[in-house]
Amino acid sequence: MRLTSSELDAHVAAFNRDGMVMLRGHFSKDVLTAWRAAFEPLLQAHIASEHDKPNRGTQRHYVTLPFAGLFADPAIHADPDVLAIVERVAGTAPVLCQLASDTPLRGSDYQPWHRDTPPLFEEWGRETPSFQLAVNFPLCDVTPENGPLETTLGTHVLEKNRVLAQIDSAQTAIESVAMQLGDVLIRDVRQIHRGTPNQTDQPRPMVVLGYSRRWLYRPEVHIRVPQATWDTLPAQSRQLLRFNPIVSDNGAPLDNYRQFAY
Length: 262
Ligand SMILES: O=C(O)CCC(=O)C(=O)O
Hints:
The protein is of the alpha+beta class. It contains 7 helices and 11 strands. The radius of gyration is 18 Å and the shape is globular. It binds 2-oxoglutaric acid. Residues 56, 102, 104, 111, 116, 149, 193, 195, 206, 260 line the site of 2-oxoglutaric acid.
């Protein structure tokens, strides 16, 4: 464990207040540089297969990553500091349910402001404590030019229509989230946010690991865990992955997560 208990407390307090917290320089740049090289052909294959119907808006691609090789590294999906924050925010024994990437290219546009999940209890009319977290880390530096995430602080527990009205009338501050390779953003997926245009010729890949409360099953995402990967995983990773299918081959990851904005 690299962060102290009081540092974790401070991060959790920031998360609960803002709906997100940033760990600067947290992951190894060398590891992420290798992810970037392994990701490039996956992105190219995805673009070729979806060129006329990108799944996240014009020139914006959601690519599921195979849970194999370097993409199945416990140092990333079971990072002790990230898990400590996830557990303090969303309870013990979380479930890892998603490994994917969001990549805007030149020609991408502003997304509509959105959440990534509907409320747990729609009829209740107010928000619950956190139940679904995204752990995001880019495979490049994220600058004002290449499509930083834009988000709003503290909106994960507010009524969505009220927040949208406040954004419209410029009563809510918009945060543009610049990141460097190695930075890790932990966010409540109900925080109201949007993708922005990438105005460069380089793709801007952002990895997303999804963690749910221990009792939550999200039908829209899952990780296909090849048996050969499963056999190499430590007990903690197997515990995190317990709701996911173990498959006999490396087969193409499913890209069935198309409804993404709530
Ligand atoms: O990639 C981004 O910056 C944001 C993407 C996003 O929010 C989404 O597709 O749901």
